[in-house]
Amino acid sequence: MSTQPQTVFFLGATGYLSSQFLLLLNEKLPQLHIVALLRNATSARKEQVQKVYSNISFVEGSLDADVIIQEQVAKADIVINCASSDHPASIKSTLAGLETNSKNNPGKPPLYIHVSGCGIVSDNARGEPVEYVKEWSDIGLDLKLCPPENTHLDSDIPIVEAGSRTENPVRTIIYFPAQIYGVGEGIQKTTLWLRIFLDLIKNVGYAGTWGPGANAMNNVHVKDCAMGLFLILQAALEGRADEGPEGLYFSASMEPRISYRDWTKVMGDYLYSRGIIKQGGTRPMPAEVVDPLGNYGWSLLGGNFFVKSERLYKLGWEPTETKKLSLLDSLPGALEQALKE
Questions:
Q1: Beta-carbon neighbour count of residue 166 at 10 Å?
Q2: DSSP string, 150-199
Q3: How confident is the model at residue 1 (pLDDT cuts 50, 70, 90)?
Q4: Which phi and psi angles does 237 have, rounded to 5°?
Q5: What pLDDT, on a 0 to 100 scale, did the predictor assign at position 317?
Q6: Which residue from 31, 51, 53, 284 has the least number of CB within 10 angstroms?
Q7: Exposed, middle or buried by CB within 10 Å (0-12, 13-18, 19+), for 102?
Q8: Beta strands in 199-313 (DSSP E)
Q9: Residue 3 pLDDT > 80, yes or no?
Q10: Which residues, other chains included, contact 164 with Cβ-Cβ below 8 Å and sequence gap of 6+?
């Protein structure tokens, strides 16, 4: 690995996966200098991030700060985006900055690692039981062969195209986590899907699913997911990562896939036992909850995502925390944490 200090421009530093990853990076690669994009960059928020990664400075701005993002990307050695995987404007800004960076540094293309999600392979089963679900490997994966209406693709495909060109080249890697779970040790300690479903459950008074909830996906503990992201960065720094059209990495264990019906039932029963809702179990969510999210919601919350993390395993990754604590067993502790937030 290169010993030369490098600068990383980081988007999404305060998130669930990202702050867990920064804790790991602080332990293993503290010489990297990170410049983090931070909304409302108060002293308190800066201190919060500095507790997870010490060698860090900040620029204030949101994902819509086109000029700031382009300027920072254009002068960074590495860009890591753990922010929203569905924010095309920030991706456009990032790719423009990367092109400038490459043009200004011939022979030294910048590295861009982008965190997306396994929603790209949703079969949009609408929560119904189906006889066959395709299992997608990240070896031979072509994003243009994924169902075109699926989430993330409008951001991910332009990234792969940028990583495929020969003029002003960019080294691109996209990371696709499955259902991330567990209580994290970083700034945001609970996963987004848990918080979304907790809010929905409290609003409607019971736990529920999109359709019957027969759909399922692979899962991965947040600590294992962060370790996978670190291994990819480490491999890229050592020149042995797959990049460009081949630089697509699923992050998913092969532990049992849990249906939405099963894990929402655990949530419903637990919240009922705590007196937070008046009904246990789970049932299909009503139209007033499902309809506002439209096709996006059905694809993301009603589909099956079956994947194999073959590239990550080639880097020596093992989902050790996932094997220690299953998704279902993690839910009581995660719900308690989310209720405090």
A1: 5
A2: STTHHHHHHHHHHTT-SSS--EEEEEEE-EEES--SSSS-S-HHHHHHHH
A3: very low
A4: -65, -30
A5: 98
A6: 31
A7: buried
A8: 207-209, 216-217, 219-221, 248-251, 258-259, 282-284, 306-308
A9: no
A10: 244, 245
